[in-house]
Amino acid sequence: MLNQAKKSTDKSFAQATLAVAVFVMCFFLGKAFKKQLEMDRPPVLASLAEAPMPGHFLACADMNLDQILYLYNAGHLIDQARKDILFLGNSRMLFTFRHEALELLQRDFGLSAYQLAIAGEGARYTRALIRKHDLRPKWVFLNADNFLIQDDSLLGEKLLNGSPFDAFKLLVNGEVSFFVKRHLHRQVPYLSPSQPIGARSIFYRSIQDGSIQIAAVQGKSGPLPFDTSGGRATKEDLMTASLLLDELKSRGAKIILICIPPSIPPLARELARIHSLPLIVPEVPDLWSIDQSHMDYYSATRYSQAVIREASPYLRGSSSGFGESIPRSGHQQGR
Amino acid sequence: MNFVSWEFLLLFIPIFAIRLSLGRGRTEPFFLFSVAAASTLFVAWHIPIYFFIMLTSILVDYWAAVGILALPPGSPRRKTLLLASLGTNLGLLAFFKYTNFAVQSVEDFSMALGFEQQLPRLHLALPMGISFYTFCSMSYTIDVYRDRIKPCKSFWDFYFFITFFPHLVAGPIIRAEQFIYQFYRRRRPRLKVLNYGFYLIIRGLFLKMVCADNLGERLKGMWEASYFEGAPCVRTWLVVLMFSAQIFYDFEGYTSIARGLAYLLGFRFPVNFNNPYLANTFKNFWERWHITLSSWLRDYLYVALGGNRGSRSRTYLNLMLVMILGGLWHGAAPTFVAWGFVHGLGLAVERLLGFHKRQGNFWLRTYWYAVVQVVVLIAWVIFRSDSLRGATSIVSNMFSFQGYGVRDQDYAMITLLLPILGMHIFGWAVERRFMRPLGPWVKAVFTGLMGYAILIGYGVNNDFIYFAF
Predict the structure, then answer these.
(1) What is the mean pLDDT of chain A?
(2) Which of A122, B18, B34, B394 keeps 20 to 30 A from A224, CA to CA?
(3) Cβ-contact B382, B388 below 8 angstroms
(4) How distant is the Cα of B209 from the closest Cα of chain A, in angstroms?
(5) CA of A166 to nearest chain B CA: how many angstroms apart?
(6) Is the CB of residue A161 less than 8 Å away from at least one CB of chain B?
(7) What number of other Cβ atoms are within 10 A of residue B224's Cβ?
(8) What distances in angstroms separate CA A24 from CA A18, A89, A188, B192, B451, one per listed residue?
(9) Can you tell me the distance from the alpha carbon of B193 to that of B179, in angstroms, rounded to the nearest whole number?
(10) CA B54 → CA B123, B134, B148, distances in Å?
(11) What pLDDT was estimated at residue A327?
(12) DSSP secondary structure of B189-255
């Protein structure tokens, strides 16, 4: 009977070994033929992601982890945002005003700056962040496009209505998923038939100034299209957009509205007129995008420098009066 | 907590390590305590305070069973205690699941009578697994009342039985008599059992992560498109077949993982699915689909209503009622009620025609098989749709016999129907004894292959469909 039990255990051990051997064989075959198997499929973005620079944290992988970290001030991140200038908006703001632009403001104007734009999120979330952490910047550069009127993202809604524990679970899952995918798909091809398509990006953010370090991006680069479409802003849009403006004003912030190509909606002009705010849309030719929506590094540098140049009279306090709308300096038409 | 998540892996690995190292002989109590602690954490992970809702159900049912046993047979107080137990469980279920449905129904009724009113609604998340653990718990008290089983020796045994995490969220709905005796068995970790447990887990993960999640992701848009009048007939059929495959993969995948986890921890769960799309009668469908729910409904509801012991019309009524309540169990929406109604009607008509006995010549049986499967597909349309109107739209597109509409990217999805086809063909061959069931060597090869397939083909993680119930 003991012999039978031993034989049974040996057989089971052999079966387990067979399963592992089959798996290992598939793994090495898959690794050897990874390129052929993937053919023209886009690779898993996480597997292309470079490592973060020192002083940077994972901000966006399959979801916005920065939203969670900022909302709950994890690692005192939001405390870093108590600076003279805040950049608020969505991913266009984030990709345009990078570390060099923030450094320029410090160097030339003696003003510290923090990039607090949140990719894919609307103004309500930003307002919630500002209120929760009682942020009181002196200046705000605000991108005046659909960021001001769009609804919360699903994640934003979850975070604003959920508990810290729910947020913690999302954060852990997001970070671990990224880590696993990043290492796994360097060795293993990804052949899912429902692989999502379209522009996506993975990026880190600086703890110090919130600026972006792009780890990987997917999408077709090309000339940045301009989009001035959209009819006259509705009364509801203006009221919704004004909520963030009023909140910032009540905190003593001076606001400079910006439009970032490709999105230059009529809403921006209406808001500037109603609130007597400057609206800056500099004329910068030959802008290039990484994914038809966000500027590449060189275009972002040129555009942000142009914006800061045009904003300098306000920042130096030498404009005839804050609150007067400067004429829009123009934008590329019909590209 | 989802089985397909990192936090679950972090929870399970230490428990499994304890099982391998300590879960034998005198250290068994520590192992059982660890599993109970892990189960408590599993329950509380969703919304911590909801643990107390489950605890309420556990406390009431445990003490009701103890009280029932203490009273003499025939005592009317036994029934009072039973009703207290059923009332608590059904009350909790009704409160969380059906309050808003009831409110909506009252509003709709008022509207129909000509006066509009807006009543307050409940904005509470549904406690995870409430539909499953309340049924589990009720079956225990009912079985004690019927003298089928003795109550648990201790409160902790009962607590362990209800909270045991592999079956907590989406079944199988375990009966006390199937599970509690397993506490007192010797439970040495045997490699053969561990192999089988791993095979079930990998199989479940493959069905869920590769098959169900990929289908689910693509189906989101395709289903919406099928609502439109004039949607192509062939593509609509494809969409419906994809959903019938997705829900099978999802639920069978979950159950497979649950059974595998239970095996690894030294417990055995009943099978919950048995190639349901081979069913050639409605009765047979419910002997193959969500077996533990259908047997629960049969033993505790159908039999209590009189079963088939009364007149014919009473039997048909009982079948309809049980299936409608079964539909309602899935969710508080007219579509679920209608889904249950369709199945109830199918069972009643089948019994009326005498087809439930699966007799008759080959052509008659084949014809009825086709009828059953088409009705099951139509019922899935109702189950999945946002509204009855939407379901009607899809069904009329299915039978318009106009339009092809299958796109290039849809063909990749058709490959995901191959596993379910293969499983059912193989299952049919085994039932007919043309082939033998898979042996452990073949399962070992499949484990390796499916394990790798998960790494290369996992879809976007969607929650298990039955988590919503």
Answers:
(1) 86
(2) A122
(3) yes
(4) 10
(5) 8
(6) no
(7) 12
(8) 10, 47, 12, 21, 10
(9) 17
(10) 19, 8, 24
(11) 38
(12) --HHHHHHHHHHHHHHHIIIIIIIHHHHHHHHHHHHHHTSTT--HHHHHHHHHHHHHHHHHHHHHHH
Which tokens in the block code for residue A32? 């050897």
DSSP H/E element including B338 = helix B334-353
Pairwise CB contact (< 8 Å): A26 & B195: no
Query: What digits encode the pLDDT tens for the residues A203-225?
Result: 999 999 999 999 998 888 888 87
**Radius of gyration of chain A, Cα coordinates, nearest whole angstrom:** 24
d(CA B178, CA B140): 11
Residue of A nearest to B220 (CA): A194
Euclidean distance between CA atoms B269 and B267, whole angstroms: 7
Of A13, A26, A193, the CB nearest to B413: A193
Give B415's contacts in chain A (Cβ within 8 Å). 193
CA B44 to chain centre: 21
ipTM score assigned to the predicted complex: 0.86
Token readout for B329 is: 């169990």
Q: What share of chain A is helix, strand, coil (3-state, %, to 5)?
A: 45, 15, 40
Contacts of A100 (CB under 8 A, 6+ apart): A301, A304
Structure token pair of residue B320: 């309809």
Cross-chain residue pair A194–B460, CB shorter than 8 Å: yes
Among residues A19, A187, A195, which one has the least CA distance to residue B450? Answer: A19
A178 CA: distance to closest CA in chain B (Å): 12
CB-neighbour burial class of residue B294 (10 A; exposed 0-12, middle 13-18, buried 19+):
buried
DSSP B272: -
CA distance A66 to A57: 8
Measured in whole angstroms, how far is the alpha carbon of residue A172 from the centre of its chain? Answer: 19
Rounded distance between C-alpha atoms, residue A259 and residue A278, angstroms: 11
Per DSSP (E only), the strands in chain A are 56-60, 85-88, 113-115, 139-143, 200-206, 212-218, 222-223, 254-258, 279-280, 288-289
Whether B195 sits inside 8 A of A15 (CB atoms) is: yes
Residues of B labelled catalytic: 330
Which of B377, B458, B430 is closest to B207 using CA atoms?
Answer: B458
Q: Which of A8, A169, A173 sits opposite B192 (nearest CB)?
A: A8
A299 DSSP 8-state letter: H
The strand pairing partners of A204, in sequence order, are: A58, A213
Chain B residues whose CB is inside 8 A of the A11 CB are 192, 440
Per the confidence metrics, is the pTM higher than 0.80? Answer: yes
